[in-house]
Protein backbone atom coordinates (compact mmCIF):
# COMPACT_ATOMS: atom_id res chain seq x y z
CA UNK A 1 0.00 0.00 0.00
CA UNK A 2 2.89 2.30 -0.68
CA UNK A 3 1.84 5.93 -0.85
CA UNK A 4 -1.66 5.32 0.53
CA UNK A 5 -2.75 6.21 4.01
CA UNK A 6 -6.42 5.52 3.31
CA UNK A 7 -7.39 1.91 2.57
CA UNK A 8 -10.68 3.06 0.99
CA UNK A 9 -8.87 5.32 -1.48
CA UNK A 10 -6.49 2.49 -2.30
CA UNK A 11 -9.30 0.00 -2.91
CA UNK A 12 -11.21 2.56 -4.98
CA UNK A 13 -8.24 2.73 -7.35
CA UNK A 14 -8.72 -0.96 -8.11
CA UNK A 15 -12.06 -0.08 -9.71
CA UNK A 16 -10.17 2.03 -12.29
CA UNK A 17 -8.76 -0.98 -14.15
CA UNK A 18 -10.78 -1.44 -17.37
CA UNK A 19 -12.45 -4.81 -17.72
CA UNK A 20 -11.11 -6.06 -14.41
CA UNK A 21 -12.95 -6.77 -11.20
CA UNK A 22 -10.55 -7.22 -8.31
CA UNK A 23 -11.97 -9.67 -5.79
CA UNK A 24 -11.89 -7.52 -2.68
CA UNK A 25 -13.27 -8.26 0.78
CA UNK A 26 -16.28 -6.10 -0.10
CA UNK A 27 -17.01 -8.22 -3.17
CA UNK A 28 -16.45 -11.40 -1.18
CA UNK A 29 -19.00 -10.33 1.42
CA UNK A 30 -21.54 -9.29 -1.23
CA UNK A 31 -21.09 -12.54 -3.12
CA UNK A 32 -20.97 -15.02 -0.25
CA UNK A 33 -24.35 -16.66 -0.95
CA UNK A 34 -23.82 -16.47 -4.71
CA UNK A 35 -20.52 -18.30 -4.37
CA UNK A 36 -22.02 -20.82 -1.96
CA UNK A 37 -24.73 -21.53 -4.54
CA UNK A 38 -22.07 -22.12 -7.19
CA UNK A 39 -20.11 -24.44 -4.90
CA UNK A 40 -23.27 -26.44 -4.26
CA UNK A 41 -23.14 -27.50 -7.90
CA UNK A 42 -20.16 -29.71 -7.10
CA UNK A 43 -22.62 -32.37 -5.89
CA UNK A 44 -24.36 -34.43 -8.59
CA UNK A 45 -27.70 -34.39 -6.75
CA UNK A 46 -27.62 -30.59 -6.59
CA UNK A 47 -26.74 -30.33 -10.29
CA UNK A 48 -29.75 -32.54 -11.07
CA UNK A 49 -32.04 -30.32 -8.96
CA UNK A 50 -30.56 -27.22 -10.63
CA UNK A 51 -31.08 -28.57 -14.13
CA UNK A 52 -34.65 -29.60 -13.32
CA UNK A 53 -35.73 -26.10 -12.20
CA UNK A 54 -33.12 -23.36 -12.04
CA UNK A 55 -35.40 -20.67 -10.62
CA UNK A 56 -36.68 -22.94 -7.84
CA UNK A 57 -33.14 -23.98 -6.95
CA UNK A 58 -32.05 -20.33 -6.74
CA UNK A 59 -35.00 -19.51 -4.48
CA UNK A 60 -33.39 -21.69 -1.82
CA UNK A 61 -30.45 -19.27 -1.67
CA UNK A 62 -30.63 -15.86 0.06
CA UNK A 63 -29.09 -14.03 -2.88
CA UNK A 64 -30.16 -10.65 -4.22
CA UNK A 65 -32.60 -10.52 -7.09
CA UNK A 66 -29.84 -8.98 -9.22
CA UNK A 67 -27.59 -11.96 -8.47
CA UNK A 68 -30.36 -14.44 -9.30
CA UNK A 69 -31.14 -12.63 -12.57
CA UNK A 70 -27.46 -12.61 -13.55
CA UNK A 71 -27.17 -16.34 -12.80
CA UNK A 72 -30.20 -17.14 -14.94
CA UNK A 73 -28.85 -14.92 -17.75
CA UNK A 74 -25.36 -16.45 -17.39
CA UNK A 75 -24.03 -12.89 -17.32
CA UNK A 76 -20.61 -13.68 -15.87
CA UNK A 77 -19.37 -10.09 -15.96
CA UNK A 78 -22.38 -8.98 -13.93
CA UNK A 79 -21.87 -11.90 -11.55
CA UNK A 80 -18.32 -10.72 -10.92
CA UNK A 81 -19.64 -7.20 -10.28
CA UNK A 82 -22.08 -8.67 -7.75
CA UNK A 83 -19.44 -10.55 -5.80
CA UNK A 84 -19.02 -13.72 -7.77
CA UNK A 85 -15.59 -15.29 -7.87
CA UNK A 86 -14.66 -16.66 -11.30
CA UNK A 87 -13.42 -19.91 -9.79
CA UNK A 88 -16.76 -20.45 -8.10
CA UNK A 89 -18.62 -19.37 -11.25
CA UNK A 90 -16.70 -22.15 -13.02
CA UNK A 91 -18.99 -24.60 -11.22
CA UNK A 92 -21.94 -22.97 -12.97
CA UNK A 93 -20.52 -22.97 -16.47
CA UNK A 94 -19.12 -26.46 -16.01
CA UNK A 95 -22.61 -27.62 -15.09
CA UNK A 96 -23.75 -26.06 -18.37
CA UNK A 97 -21.09 -28.09 -20.18
CA UNK A 98 -18.89 -25.11 -21.02
CA UNK A 99 -15.13 -25.06 -20.75
CA UNK A 100 -13.35 -22.18 -19.05
CA UNK A 101 -12.33 -20.82 -22.46
CA UNK A 102 -15.89 -20.99 -23.79
CA UNK A 103 -17.36 -19.23 -20.77
CA UNK A 104 -14.68 -16.56 -20.50
CA UNK A 105 -14.92 -15.76 -24.19
CA UNK A 106 -18.54 -14.70 -23.55
CA UNK A 107 -17.18 -12.12 -21.12
CA UNK A 108 -15.05 -10.47 -23.81
CA UNK A 109 -17.52 -10.08 -26.66
CA UNK A 110 -15.37 -12.41 -28.75
CA UNK A 111 -16.24 -15.82 -30.05
CA UNK A 112 -14.18 -18.75 -28.76
CA UNK A 113 -11.82 -18.78 -31.74
CA UNK A 114 -11.10 -15.06 -31.51
CA UNK A 115 -10.55 -15.29 -27.76
CA UNK A 116 -8.20 -18.26 -28.06
CA UNK A 117 -6.23 -16.54 -30.83
CA UNK A 118 -5.88 -13.39 -28.71
CA UNK A 119 -4.69 -15.38 -25.69
CA UNK A 120 -2.30 -17.48 -27.77
CA UNK A 121 -0.84 -14.24 -29.14
CA UNK A 122 -0.06 -13.02 -25.62
CA UNK A 123 -3.39 -11.65 -24.43
CA UNK A 124 -4.97 -8.25 -24.66
CA UNK A 125 -2.64 -5.31 -25.17
CA UNK A 126 -2.28 -3.15 -22.07
CA UNK A 127 -2.44 -0.02 -24.25
CA UNK A 128 -5.65 1.84 -23.46
CA UNK A 129 -6.45 -0.72 -20.73
CA UNK A 130 -4.62 0.72 -17.74
CA UNK A 131 -7.12 3.27 -16.47
CA UNK A 132 -10.76 4.08 -16.94
CA UNK A 133 -10.24 7.67 -15.73
CA UNK A 134 -6.98 8.34 -17.54
CA UNK A 135 -7.74 6.11 -20.54
CA UNK A 136 -4.12 5.09 -21.03
Could you characterize the architecture of this molecule?
This protein is mostly helical and 136 residues long. The protein has a domain at 23-99: Orthogonal Bundle (Protocatechuate 4,5-dioxygenase, Chain A). It is built from ten helices and no strands. It has helices at residues 7-13, 25-30, 32-40, 44-52, 54-59, 65-73, 76-81, 86-95, 100-106, 112-120. It is flat.
Summarize the structure.
With 136 residues, the protein is mostly helical. It has helices at residues 7-13, 25-30, 32-40, 44-52, 54-59, 65-73, 76-81, 86-95, 100-106, 112-120. It has a domain at 23-99: Protocatechuate 4,5-dioxygenase, Chain A (Orthogonal Bundle), CATH 1.10.700.10.
Which characteristics define this entry?
single chain; 136 residues; mainly alpha; Protocatechuate 4,5-dioxygenase, Chain A; 10 helices; 57% helix; flat
**SSE pattern:** HHHHHHHHHH
**CATH architectural name of the domain at 23-99:** Orthogonal Bundle
Shape: flat
CATH class descriptor name of the domain at 23-99: Mainly Alpha
Mean pLDDT: 86
Structural class: mainly alpha
Percent range of helical residues: 55-70%
Tell me the name of the CATH homologous superfamily of the domain at 23-99: Dioxygenase LigAB, LigA subunit
The whole-angstrom Rg is 17 Å
Task: Break the fold down into its secondary structure elements and pairings.
Layout: H1 7-13, H2 25-30, H3 32-40, H4 44-52, H5 54-59, H6 65-73, H7 76-81, H8 86-95, H9 100-106, H10 112-120
Amino acid sequence: MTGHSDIHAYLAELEDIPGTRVYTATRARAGYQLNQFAMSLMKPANRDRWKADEAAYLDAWPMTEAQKAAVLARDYNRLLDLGGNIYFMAKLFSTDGLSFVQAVSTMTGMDVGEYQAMMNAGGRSPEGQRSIKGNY
